[in-house]
Amino acid sequence: MKNLTPGHSCRLRLRAATLFVAVVVSLNLSANELKFEQIFSDKGEPPSLHYLAEFSSKGTQHQLELWRDGERRLKRRTDDSVEIYAFRKPDDSEFRLSILDLKRHIHTRVDRTNLYRIGNFTDWFDLAHGLKHPKGVYQLVPASAPQGETKPLTACQWYDLTQQQRTTHVCWSLKKHIPMIIQAQNLEVLWRVTALDQKPVLETHFVIHDEGFVQNDANQDIEND
Questions:
Q1: Residue from 142, 124, 145 nearest 133 by CA
Q2: Superfamily the domain 36-224 falls into
Q3: Angle CA(199)–CA(204)–CA(206) in degrees, nearest 5?
Q4: Counts for the chain of helices (H) and strands (E), in that order
Q5: How far apart are CA 172 and CA 177, in angstroms?
Q6: Between 20 and 30 A from 73 (CA), which of 91, 143, 172, 202?
Q7: Under a CB-based contact definition with an 8 Å cutoff, are residues 69 and 206 in contact?
């Protein structure tokens, strides 16, 4: 066996210690990373929910109002432009949509399966919560409130969602099961809930008023392609 000089032996121990620390750090990082469905879950959410939110899309500010009746039906109104109604059976991934273009007076009907056929992977969770599952590889870790963050309407827990070297800060309400605030990496507010309540949603909210609208059956168009 080759004799080791004191300097050589010291370097080996230092190299081994460095490798050990790197492995421990890697394991800790892996342990801290969370699954999207684990944190942003609808399990145990309120049976009824009504909220108003402001959000930014392509540099333009929008107003959204949403009514949700459990897992059976929901209604979204964006600005004074679009109303979306979604209906489904409890515990069923399939749902049907009615989309009302309020300016052009067009009522489009489409089912989830046909949305998927044309590459639109909108899901019930996306519609109800304003937060969409990231595509591809991502990292989700607990975080502290970003500096200068906008104050949330109610208590929420901050998480950092990183994808393609871009981090989004999400403040998730553990009681309401919706994001109270979403901020971009530069701290621009992308989403903010401004009001909410848990009163039972009235039946009248799910009555579709489409008198005089052009009726468009997208299901038939997609299935015939």
A1: 124
A2: Lipoprotein localisation LolA/LolB/LppX (2.50.20.10)
A3: 90
A4: 5, 12
A5: 7
A6: 172
A7: yes
- pLDDT, one tens digit per residue, over 115-167 is 888 888 788 999 999 898 998 999 999 999 998 778 999 999 999 999 999 99
Q: DSSP per residue over 33-72, as a string?
A: ---HHHHS--TT--SEEEEEEEEEETTEEEEEEEEEETTT
User: Which of 216, 201, 211, 205 is CA-nearest to residue 98?
Assistant: 216
Amino acid, single-letter form, for residue 165:
Q
Please give the C-alpha separations between residue 216 and each of 46, 79, 86, 205, in angstroms, as whole numbers. 34, 22, 16, 22
For tokens 């515990």, the residue is 91
Using H for helix, E for strand and C for coil, what is the string for 120-181? CCCCHHHHHHCCCCCCCCCEEEECCCCCCCCCCCCCCEEEEEEECCEEEEEEECCCCCCEEE
